[in-house]
Amino acid sequence: MNPASGVTAVFVAKATRTFCYGFLGIVLPIYLADLGMGATAIGVAVTSTLAGSAMLTWLVRRPAERFGARAALLGLTGLSAVAAVLLLASREPWLVVLGAVLGNVAVGTGETGPFLTVEQVVVARATPAARRTAVLSVYNLLGYAAAALGAVSVRFTASYTPLFAMFLAGAVVQAIAYSTMRAPATPVRSPGGRLPSAPVIRRLSALFALDSFAGGFVLQSLVAYFLHTQFDMALDTLGAVFAGTQILTGVSMLLAARAATRFGLLPTMVVSHLLSNGLLIAIAFAPTGAIAVAFLLARHLLSQMDVPTRQAYVMAVVADEEREAAASLTNLSRTVAQAITPALTGWVMTAIALSAPFALGGVLKIVYDVLLWQTFKDVKLRD
């Protein structure tokens, strides 16, 4: 694979895909409601989409190992095209949900799932270790920025059809981008199916699942509900607050590369995450809305620094032929864990306190940070 063309193709595909996710994540539940689905059924639909994302994350590993990244990514893009056709052609709710599952459309801006699994490996193989975190920071920053633009595009469309058509066009753009990637002459495979780094991958997967489970307590929609209910914040104020969090999230991506170069991948992951989790707990005890927002904004300046560093760390701690397996299993664990927590959060808010999810999520995330450091502080990187 030509390194430059591989990374460029991934960047184009990432921006195109997450632009579509930005508007699909908003319109899909509303569209299902218009088709007659109630709240319970929509919840099941979202869970089904997350389950589909987890399934595709698991299934994409072997094709990526056997046939290479280009073939696997083109296959996933074909499923996205089928999903877009279903959304355009049918008003049967179960077919719309099937399209959402095939198209992996409800993953949100903080992407997990099959595309990330394969693209992470492409970037790792095409980029020297010294630059890997910086390139992954740009990769993730593109995703957040494109998703924000996609969300804004909803304001300029009067019906669902143009949005679903854009999703289909996005699949075509992705296919063209991936087609420019050169397939390797001999696809990289795990020798005999064995994974020498299996214990390391299992420990990382378990710890990442804990972090993702804890993060489910403080999803953006739940934070917005808390600020609105606890401090009577209006929708326009909430819009400004979350615009600020997106900007600071982008800044944190850029800070991550510099911090990792100076302090190392693991220290950057752990220290930035610890500080952000202290701020997360502080939100639960904020006496005013202004102070709660200040804590939230400060947290977003730090909380995503571990995303590109985590991805770079996973790629650096295993052998090259194990990267597909490592990316698949760690992303799978995050996706599955992410699907569990939201069902618990409403009960926690009602039975304990409206602010309890912030404290609970923050404490669990601190446990993750401590365990991550204790488990991997002596593990040597492969490159």
Counted by DSSP, the helix tally is 17
Instruction: Give start-end ranges of low-pLDDT stretches.
Output: none
Question: What would you call the structural class?
Answer: mainly alpha
End-to-end span in angstroms?
20 Å
By CATH's scheme, which homologous superfamily of the largest domain applies? MFS general substrate transporter like domains
> What is the share of helical residues?
over 70%
How confident overall, as mean pLDDT? 87
Plain-language structure description:
The protein is an all-alpha fold. It has two domains: 3-179, Up-down Bundle (Growth Hormone, Chain: A); 196-376, MFS general substrate transporter like domains (Growth Hormone, Chain: A, Up-down Bundle), CATH 1.20.1250.20. The chain has helices at 3-34, 39-59, 61-67, 69-89, 93-103, 114-126, 129-153, 161-179, 198-215, 220-231, 235-263, 265-284, 289-303, 306-317, 323-340, 342-351, 356-376. The model has no long low-confidence stretch (mean pLDDT 87).
